[in-house]
Amino acid sequence: MKIPGIHHVTAIASDAQRNLDFYTQVLGLRLVKLTVNFDDPGTYHFYFGDEAGRPGTILTFFPWAGARPGRHGSGETAAVSFAVPSLAGWAKRLPATQTGTRFGQDYLSFADPDGMAVELVETGGSGTAIIGFHGVTLAETRQDATAKLLTEVFGYELAATDENRFRYVGSAGNTVDLLIQPELRRGFQGAGTVHHVAFRAETDEIQSAWLLDLANKGYQTTPILDRQYFHSIYFREPGGVLFEIATDPPGFATDETLATLGTHLKLPPWLEPRRAEIEATVPKLELPTYA
Ligand code: ZN
Questions:
Q1: 6 CA to middle of ligand 1, Å?
Q2: Domain of 130: which CATH number?
Q3: Is the CA virtual torsion 271, 277, 279, 282 positive or negative?
Q4: Which domain holds residue 52?
Q5: The model scores a pTM over 0.70
């Protein structure tokens, strides 16, 4: 049993409209689901992704109005990277960017409106639009226990090393980089930080097997939770980052058609009776229009 790769990444924003505009208009992702945080239904939950909202392309946000900024540090996701065929034209569309080359690939890094570090990595091919995740970088003070989880439990392989950066790759091709900084102070969550990284389970049966396997290996997981578009278990990896294992099915086209994904506020059946109250609580939004 192996984890193929990243399913989604969930992060914290402050202003909802600003976050929505940046990810749809500047980065060109599609809003594939507009819903609320099921644990805090007065807050939106935005899902951005490719046209179909495929696992491996989904960046989600909880926009909490007035959320205080988090602190970047250890036990946190230091950067979220997207793959693009070409970086051509991106720098002039983005706020203050830095460029570099890592493991033979050119990349461009910048901060989103809440200060979250985002990277675009050039992977070759035609076009410039985001394809999906290239990977995540986790900031950690030590490598051993997290490396063991990635390789011995998830089945990832150590693909490359550069000084204190260790790159692990799953079978779906996206990466987890461990950036080891022993003196780095602990980060804390807030606007501009990643809340958790979710990995894929292809089926519910496979997820149940992971639940057992992780428990047998001493990881403390939550029970399976119904997230409407996938089922989830959560656990904290040894370095402090919250991990999730999320199922590919049922996906985002369960309560609206592929063509209309993200055009209406969707609520799970157990929150539908509270729709009027929820709609009165969440901020009014101007939804994206796609040319
Ligand atoms: Zn999640």
A1: 11
A2: 3.10.180.10
A3: negative
A4: 6-281
A5: yes
Tokens of 267: 């609520």
Phi and psi at 46, nearest 5°, equal: -95, 135
Distance (Å, whole) CA 262 – CA 60:
12
- 286 in a structural domain: no
Distance 156 CA to ligand 1 centre (A): 20
Residue of 188, 166, 164 whose CA lies nearest to 75: 188
> Is 288 domain-assigned?
no
* Residue from 179, 175, 176 nearest 140 by CA: 179
* Distance from Cα 218 to the centre of ligand 1, integer Å: 22
Structure confidence by residue, pLDDT tens digits, 153-204: 999 999 999 999 999 999 998 999 999 999 999 999 999 999 999 999 999 9
- The number of folded domains in the chain is 1
- What's the confidence (pLDDT) of residue 96? 86
Residue 224 lies in a domain: yes
User: pLDDT digit string (tens) for 56-82?
Assistant: 999 999 999 999 999 999 999 999 999
Tally of CA atoms within 13 A in the half-sphere of 120 that contains its CB: 28
Q: Is residue 290 part of a domain?
A: no
